[in-house]
Amino acid sequence: GLKAGVPRASLKYTPVGTSCPQSSEAQVRKGHLTGLKPVVLVTFQSPVNFRQWKIEQLQIQMEAAPFRSKEQCTAEEVCVMSWYTPMPIKNGSVVMRVDVSSNGLGPFIPNKRFQVNINGFLQRQQDNTLHFTVGNEIFNLIPRYFMNVPSRALWHTVDQAPVLILGGIPDEKSVLLTDTSFTDFFLVELNIDSCWVGSFYCPQASFTATVYDAIATESTLFIRQNQLVYYFTGTYLTLHESNRGSGSWVRVLANECIKRLCPVHFHSNGSEYIMALTTGKREGYVHFGTITDGHVSFKLLPKQRSVCEGIQVANCSITWAVFIAGDYILMMLVEIQDPTTGKYFQVVSYDLVSDNLVIVYTIPEFIPDARGLEFLMILGTESYTNFPMVPKGMFHNPYNNLLFIWGNFLLQSYNNENFIYLADFPKEQSIKYLVNSFHGDMAIVTETEEVGYPAPLSKPQGSPFFPCHRQLEPTSQFQFQLYPLQGNLMVPVLIGCPPGKRLAFDITYTLEYNRLQNKHYFDCVHIDPEMPCFLFRDIFYPFFLIQDLVTGDSGSFQGSYVLKVVGGGPTMDTIKEYSEEEIYRFNSPLDKTNSLIWTTKNTTTTKDSAFNIMTHQSLGIEWLCLENSPCHDTIPHTIFAPEFFFKVLVSNRGVDKSTYCDHQLIFLLHIHGLPLSAKRALLILMVSSSVFIGLVILYIIFCLLLPVMVKACNILRWKINNIITSESYYTYTSSSRVFSGTSGTKSKGTSSVSSSVSSKVAEGNQEAPEETSKKQSIT
């Protein structure tokens, strides 16, 4: 038996061979005494947002240690001994797969595999109990919750959703939640307002509390009740590095009438997606939702006009939608009401990048007559039965590019152009939904709750599910049966990408090869050994490595790849992510908006000619930074030429036939020496010239006027001195007159004495200069 606690706890392993307690205790003792030590391998799932978290294929292998449990034991103490390992967690990962095997000693025990996921919708209370944040757990399970309840599909982001949600309980706003892939589950009544807003543009015949269309993503749950859509983001600190959890259910698209939610099973470009089909006033549009780091946003597609207007019909309704994330293509099943020809269905494709709407296929009105064949290629020349074709939905598998259209029939296409009718399905039945493992197995559930596990991949060519187009899927395990003369032997053959392989930027060889080809190498002024610079005017030749994280080996990557600039900024702090439309304009050779960041002389492109395909033998990258690109006319902040940081995405998916592995790498590229635009260069030249000329003119004026200014200053100083001297003389004269007037009032005796004294003093003063002059002349 195996027991797993919540994350941060430990894994408990007890080798129980039978259901008898005595035998269990004996097995435990025997295993411990004979050297049994379980080996635990924990595999961490990479997060969706590869921009915030580095993509890693990380595994940790641990050997369990015996430990005596603290539980009450009535027998010997060793009888409750178990084996334990710590449960590691990793930032950015909320889904962990655990494989437990034996070390080969002691009694035989079967291997065990299970998941330990982080449940971000649980909250620990003050009394140390766990409660759901999305609603209230129901402990009293009523039989009517599950009896005679129709089945429903389990929708979630494949390999990324830690918590799964399943609705459909009649007349109850309750759902089933599980974080163990339904090894166990919880019945939770949701805390939603259930506000029914019926109106003339959103008719609703009746109201029900049933929760429909429940979808789980990496950190967010979505539900639809009547025409209302809600979402709830869990608290995942290891994923978002902050508390972005919702305090309650958030209602979105409040003014819209939503008739169905359609899941997107695979994430792309660091985000997850969901689609809401409308009715009423928005008929013919799709609300396309994007979930990035727990943030939810919706936009209306198509951008310019409705699907009905795009295919030039008066009345139409979108029945189902499938988003092909790798190609950014939205496939829609459209029902058309024509007053003359009646009702018919078409498959319409919408390109989110180019905003192009195309009719892919018109579904036949009646079911073809296969005449005993297992499958029939639809060419338009075949005969038909009287049974009308009633399509209900579509399904796309990105691994083998197979598109299925289902209803009371099953159509299959591998190129979205040629369709094959699979005649094995009885036309009297109707398919309710498809379930796909994306590893080769698929199940069909009918409206009468009958289940069909179409033919496997190993069936001979001509199988109705893989006629004339057999393709082995990567990351799958197949079994081929061999028949020797003396019996048969089942041989497992592993096909796909080995674990632990990753793509890396070979900076050492890139620098060496660029220096050799360009005959020089100029690094940045401020050198960073971990991020060397490359000169804008030089041709850039990138090289990559394939690293084996298991063995530590590495070698040159010599396959094909697509290179895109997905972000950038003039500094590390100002780097921004580009939208899908911007990525197309900045990287596609088909761009007509003068927005290219780079170009290459290679002529090999993807099938739609949207992007260049590069190899290790490519002719290199020439930097352009055209007028409408983000790196055009970068303003320098110093006396040195401008520089720019590019966030570059490299992927070999869909373009490389040398390996089964789909590699993807994002790295920063530092480019310096960017040229200024002609306008800014002219402006700087004019300003610089004006400043220089102005300084020269000022210098000349200063040199010419300096003598005049000195003479003027001397004259001014002479005048000021004269004024000061005149003022002093006037003051002295005034003071003497006042003194003389006062002295006249004294007695005659005093006056005569004073006069005689003054006369003698005056005479003495007259003789003194003469003596002084004589002395000076003698000397």
UniProtKB/TrEMBL annotation:
Pfam families: CATSPERG_beta-prop, CATSPERG_C, CATSPERG_NTD
Biased composition (Low complexity): 740-761
Domain (CATSPERG N-terminal): residue spans on this chain: 20-117
InterPro entries (UniProt xref): CATSPERG (IPR028246), CATSPERG_beta-prop (IPR053871), CATSPERG_C (IPR053873), CATSPERG_N (IPR053872)
CATSPERG beta-propeller domain sequence ranges: 121-453
Keyword Membrane part of the UniProt annotation: yes
Ranges annotated as spanning the membrane: 681-710
Protein name in UniProt: Cation channel sperm-associated protein subunit gamma
